[in-house]
Amino acid sequence: MELRFKCPSTRSKVMILKVKRENYKVKTIFFKGKTPNPGQYCMIWIPRKGEKPMAYSYIGRISGVSVEKIGNFTASIHALKPGDYIGVRGPCGNGFSVKKEWSEVLLVSGGVGIAPLAPLAEKLRSMGIRVKTLMGFKTSKDVFFLDRLRSKSEVVIVTEDGSLGIKGLVSEALHSEKLDQYDQVVVCGPEAMIVSCIEVLENKNFTDYQVSFSRYMKCGIGLCGHCSFGEIVTCIEGPVLSREEIMENHQDLGVFRTSSGRREIV
Amino acid sequence: MLEVFIGFTMDNPTMLASGILGVSGYTMRRVAKSGAGAIVTKSVGIQEREGNPGPVVLEEEFGLINSIGLSNPGYRKFLDEIRIAREGGKPIVVSLFGSSPEEFSEMINYLEGEADGFELNLSCPHVKGLGMEVSSDLELSEEIMGEARKNTRKPIFLKLGIKNYLELGKIAEEKKLDGVVAINTLPALRIDLEFKCPSLGGVRGGLSGPCLKPVALRCVYDLYSELDIKVIGVGGITSGEDALEFIMAGASAVQIGTGILYKGLEIFKEVENYLREYLRKEKCALEDLVGIANVG
Ligand SMILES: Cc1cc2nc3c(=O)[nH]c(=O)nc-3n(C[C@H](O)[C@H](O)[C@H](O)COP(=O)(O)OP(=O)(O)OC[C@H]3O[C@@H](n4cnc5c(N)ncnc54)[C@H](O)[C@@H]3O)c2cc1C
Ligand SMILES: Cc1cc2nc3c(=O)[nH]c(=O)nc-3n(C[C@H](O)[C@H](O)[C@H](O)COP(=O)(O)O)c2cc1C
Ligand code: FES
Predict the structure, then answer these.
(1) What is the pLDDT of residues A135-169, one digit of tens each?
(2) Crossing angle for the helix pair B165-174 and B138-151, to the nearest 10 degrees
(3) Domain made up of A104-265: CATH architecture
(4) Of B53, B59, B260, which has the smallest distance from its Cβ to A9's Cβ?
(5) What is the rounded CA–CA span in Å between residue B92 and residue B36?
(6) Which of B20, B121, B123 to mutate to test the pocket of ligand 2 (most atoms within 8 A of CB)?
(7) Where are the domains of chain B?
(8) Among candidates B139, B144, B50, which has minimal Cα distance to B103?
(9) What are the pocket residues of ligand 3 if the criterion is a CB atom closer than 6 Å to any ligand atom?
């Protein structure tokens, strides 16, 4: 039977065309597939290792995902070489919403959250929309995609230890921004960073924003319910949520569900 | 008009099947608001379980194979989810799995205050030592049912798989359970030819969706003709007609799981509206239809 949503239901076997090291813990793998929109993700399957969601960081005839090594599965991705095969199911999810009448957009990233925002910046620029990016990282070693973003937007870089750019949290940089000039603010990063950014935006009564969440995903087809943010099933209805959706489900902000389904407050 | 009583009252005979959108109280609340007559939670056990590595699902033309692997936060942590799910205003049936009578009584005692009923999952086909492997042992199953019954007066349903379903159904009746739910997924597996390995991360899985319907109907039919307790039908329901087929075979209520994949949450309203219209046209009550096609 036909699926109700547009996620492809089958995994395709694709060859790794290229592997690029972005920094000491982030690598990008490139492969061919259907062209995604910025903010969409795919399920990457490495046989016998697992299947996990990754946002597209490069978009085009050849797509890429940029992966931070934080555990077993991401380590397996890092071990891939050009010529190796993986299974990919994607593009999945909604992606960022973009309006052509916008004139200026502010992107706010925390850590590897810059991955889906980079192709978004490129798309916005190609539409003639001005972009400014606030990029937050723990330390200068973690920084990646800086030149890529600089070529498309005005960049403010923030590190927690001050080793590069402004010292502090990216949410503090957001607080210092005059927001009136932006048609839209787009946030992507870890849950704790999302929570503080939303707090800043709401305190400034700024409501034109969207956030890309990364909840724990298992099935990626809207059945298991693991990835939920409040009542929203983020794997098919997200991962990008509007302010309205976030506010309607705000009780689940800052709550992360582990692989067992246990809630953890971040 | 569509009200049914299966130990508690539901405003219509559709229920959310266990394991689908049943991890979080909020998603269960949403399904309740979308029109399901009752909600069955994800199966929970004594201990937290992470479940299987991915892929955990495989979609096929004829249905779905899953190997989620009974991931759950453990019954204690689940209490909050049940509380949130209740806000949907529909009865909440808590699905439990375990391997001994003591485990079931411990969980029932703890959750009883928040649950409107329990479903004993003795039939998950893909987790070692749990589910189906428990129901293969009729004596153990009998002890579990007896112990569960001793610990609560709330409705208890036994979730059956294909294995021993009639024998287990009879034991459920003897042990004064309120009903049986048929059926759970069937044991399944696929091989990925390109990668030369099992298609699912957990290797073994359970088959659900349209291809399950005739098998489930047969079970429901047999159970209805042999038992006096309620039979709840589940397996491959994707439309009002499917639900009616289960009802005519003997189901007092139906559960929907994989159907959500094809129809979205609107499926509950779709089934409800179909049944309402059918009853209006046929000028009969729902209970007149239960088992009407069952000639024994
Ligand atoms: C829509 C979406 C897009 C993502 N995009 C990227 C990306 O572009 N780059 C990137 O490096 N990471 C991305 N992630 C996170 C990535 O999926 C996890 O880092 C990865 O699964 C970790 O697996 P592991 O085995 O290495 O780590 P583990 O040791 O298993 O887990 C480490 C942490 O990773 C997270 N995690 C683990 N499994 C999952 C899962 N199935 N779903 C979501 N989070 C998980 C949890 O927070 C966990 O605590 C994305 C997640 C989602 C939901
Ligand atoms: C993803 C998924 C997870 C499931 N998890 C459970 C579970 O935890 N407990 C249980 O009793 N049944 C579980 N089931 C089985 C369903 O409740 C149901 O019996 C089966 O899927 C057949 O119905 P369907 O064809 O409408 O999905 C699960 C099914 C699926 C597809
Ligand atoms: S990951 Fe299973 S419902 Fe979203």
Answers:
(1) 999 999 999 999 999 999 999 999 999 999 999 99
(2) 30
(3) 3-Layer(aba) Sandwich (3.40)
(4) B59
(5) 11
(6) B20
(7) 4-50+70-186+211-289
(8) B144
(9) A 217-220, 222-227, 233, 235
Burial of B190 (0-12, 13-18, 19+ CB in 10 A): middle
- Could you report the predicted ipTM of this complex, rounded to two decimals? 0.94
Distance from C-alpha of B144 to C-alpha of B119, rounded to nearest angstrom? 12
Q: What is the fold, at CATH topology level, of the domain defined by B4-50+70-186+211-289?
A: TIM Barrel (3.20.20)
Cα separation of A266 and B96, whole Å? 29
Specify the domain boundaries for CATH 3.40.50.80 within chain A.
104-265
Sequence-separated (6 or more) residues with CB below 8 Å from residue A191:
A213, A214, A254, A255, A256, A266
Length of chain A, in residues: 266
CB B287 within 8 A of CB B294: no
* Number of Cα atoms under 13 Å in the Cβ half of residue A99: 13
> Would strands B92-96 and B38-40 be described as parallel, antiparallel, or unpaired?
parallel
Residue A71 CB–ligand 1 contact under 6 Å: yes
* Residue A76 three-state SS: helix
Rounded Cα gap, residues B10 and A144, in angstroms: 55
Give the CATH H-level superfamily of domain A12-92. Translation factors (2.40.30.10)
Backbone angles phi, psi at B235, to 5 degrees: 140, 100
Give this prediction's pTM: 0.96
Residues of B catalogued as catalytic = 124
Task: Tell me the H-state helices in chain B.
Answer: 25-33, 75-86, 101-111, 132-135, 138-151, 165-174, 213-226, 240-249, 259-263, 267-282, 286-289
Alpha helices in chain A (DSSP H): 72-78, 114-126, 146-150, 170-176, 191-203, 234-237, 243-248
pLDDT digits (tens, 9 = 90+) for B120-165: 999 866 666 666 677 788 999 999 999 999 999 999 999 999 999 9
Record: contact B54-A3, CB cut-off 8 A: no
